Each structure stands twice: as structure tokens, then as C-alpha cells.
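Hi team,

Filling in the usual template for the complex we talked about on Friday. All components are listed, including any nucleic acid strands or ligand strings, so the model treats them as one assembly.

SUBMITTER: L.P.
PURPOSE: interface mapping
COMPONENTS: two
RESIDUES: 230
SEQUENCES:
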Amino acid sequence: DGGITQSPKYLFRKEGQNVTLSCEQNLNHDAMYWYRQDPGQGLRLIYYSQIVNDFQKGDIAEGYSVSREKKESFPLTVTSAQKNPTAFYLCASRNGGQPNTGELFFGEGSRLTVL
Amino acid sequence: AQSVAQPEDQVNVAEGNPLTVKCTYSVSGNPYLFWYVQYPNRGLQFLLKYITGDNLVKGSYGFEAEFNKSQTSFHLKKPSALVSDSALYFCAVRDRHTGFQKLVFGTGTRLLVSP
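RESULT (copied from the run log):
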């Protein structure tokens, strides 16, 4: 079955450590996204990528980095510069072909806790 | 910039009663509107979308949404609620920034259906 796989599901990190969250999709979608979810704040966009080797900052990119070396993969690194990294992270993708009405398909999320 | 507002943090309804989850939007141009549902520690699932056409949109699990241009609203409805509908619901609007599409989400409304 096609879908988006995020790993790990749960991750604990000590302060000062970088961590990388994996996102893999087999939907052949062009665009991929990372959102952060905090209680009461909804979803906020961290980074997005339209094609391989290209990505753009979203609304809250500080302290995060991404890469897009393959169409299927869009890993997110939470660096030690992110001041409040404890959150639920969601990866999503979108089909860039026609008809393109914009809906996103989401993975199951990764919960990061900083100890 | 495009935005959506979900004025209720929580909606309580008894099983078998009709439910409404409210959403208002602010866009320039024609709105593309979406509803998603999230169960605890899971990703978001697409419910329905409004692109154009009939103001009443039907989606998954018996949900529907009514688009009202004059009131800039896109309320989610269901004629008869189930306990299993209890979840977090997000309204979203498509934002096309510099030709790249992304979704802007509301803060979410928690629906609690009591037996």
C-alpha cells in the first residue's frame, strides 16, 4: 500500500543533541512538508520541498534543517539551536500533478521529547 | 495571507445528535478549503474539501461541510454523531505563495461525543 512512513514514532533527546526524523513516501508525490504540532497551536509549517534538491523555509524554520536528495525522502534534523523542540512532528506530501487541488497526505507523526 | 479560524476549542455533543464544528476563513481569491481529523498520537486524515461547485460537500465517515461565501464560513457537520467521532478536527485553507502550494491550518477543535 502507498503511504508515508515516519520514524521513529517516539524519540527522547538530551538537551544539546541533534536528532533526525525520517520521512519516506512511496506515493510518487513531488511536494513534501514538515509541520510541527503543539497543543492549542494547531500545525505550523517548518520546511517544504517542491522537487528534489530544493526546499524552502516555512514559518518556524529556525533550529531545523532538511535535505531532499531523493524524491521519496525528506528527513528533518532538529538541531541544538531549536529552543523548545518537544513537540509532535508531522510529515506530509502532495501530488503535484493534475488535477491538483492541494490536499496533503500525512504520516503518523513522530513525538520528540527533550529530557 | 490566507488564514482560518476555529472559534471553539471543544464541542460536546450527545451520541445520535447532530454536530457542527465551526470554521471561518480569510482569503484573497477563490478559497480552497479542507477538513482533517486527528485521533490521539496519529497523523491527520483527510475528510473533505471544497474547491468549487455545490456549497454542500460530502466527505468520509458521513461528514459534510457547508461553504458559505457571504459569511466566509466552512462549517463541518454530521447529522448523527457517534462516540467514535470523538477526535481533533482541523480546518485548513490553501495558500499559494510564490506559486508554491501549502495548507494553513486552524488551531483545531476537539469534538467529544458522549454515549
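MY TAKE: Chain A touches chain B through 29 residues (CB under 8 Å). The longest strand of chain A covers residues 31-38.

Thanks, L.
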